[in-house]
Amino acid sequence: MTLQQLKYVIEVARSRSINKAAQRLFISQPSLSNALKELEDEVGITIFLRSNKGILITPEGTEFLGYARQVVEQAELLENRYTHTRSPQQHFSVSTQHYAFAVSAFVRLLKGYDREEYEFTLRETKTYEIIDDVKNLRSEIGIIYVNDFNKKVIEKFLREGNLLFHELFEAKPHVFISSKNPLVKQEIVTLTDLLPYPYLSFEQGDFNSFYFSEEILSTLSRPKNIRVTDRATLFNLLIGLNGYTISTGVISHQLNSKDIVAVPLKVEERINVGYITHKTVTTSTLANIYIQYLKESIEDELCQL
């Protein structure tokens, strides 16, 4: 087993394709395939499953990747300390539900990261895909919420994916509405107050189950429903159509228009927002910094509520 083979495995997992990984590694596809086969034969496990849809990481491969990343990171630290070579290109990925504070923390991470080269990824995506990204090591951190309604289902998927949930904060539900919506005059709104207005929610694709909804009270029937796929569109429709959505109430006015206002919703539900990590992967330095920025961004925004 060589350090180069470990780097090959990590790049294939990142690219999800032997061909793309070979291009990024500047080697031929047959050479990369042979190196992976030799490594799998040596360690006695199958790391990747090849299919028409691309590369899948086996459970044994996921565990192996966790160790491989630690070895490669330590080797890079050793090289930087004693060979005085330039710092290697750093990689860091986050998958998240559509939370402004997750973006704020990502911006702070990049502003404080003084390197000539890096490759960072921020995916605002669907709930199931967030869990799948962290499970298969496409992202190191995933940001989701749980509550009494979806907790058992989400915990089942986390357990099967060998993932851990770390709570960041518990929020009282709020509605996001336009600053011109008549409901902004109220200190608190009820579900009945909201009936005349279009309800906006994030579309969840093939896993559009109530349990994977980003919004609580997903089983309630509403006369006007609009589903969107991105936060910018949702906010535009909140303003243009006087619609509403249900969220934590934590909103960054540095990144989002001040035309969006959070008003408390009169319900007994609570929202527990947290981040997920893989059990077998040691959290990197970049991930730890990002988590700290997450906490600070949330605290800053909560103070404004």
From TrEMBL:
Top-level taxon of the source organism: Bacteria
Pfam families according to UniProt: HTH_1, LysR_substrate
SUPFAM superfamilies recorded: Periplasmic binding protein-like II, Winged helix' DNA-binding domain
GO function terms (MF aspect): DNA binding
InterPro entries assigned: LysR_HTH_N, LysR_subst-bd, WH-like_DNA-bd_sf, WH_DNA-bd_sf
Entry keywords, A to Z: DNA-binding, Transcription, Transcription regulation
Protein's UniProt name: DNA-binding transcriptional LysR family regulator
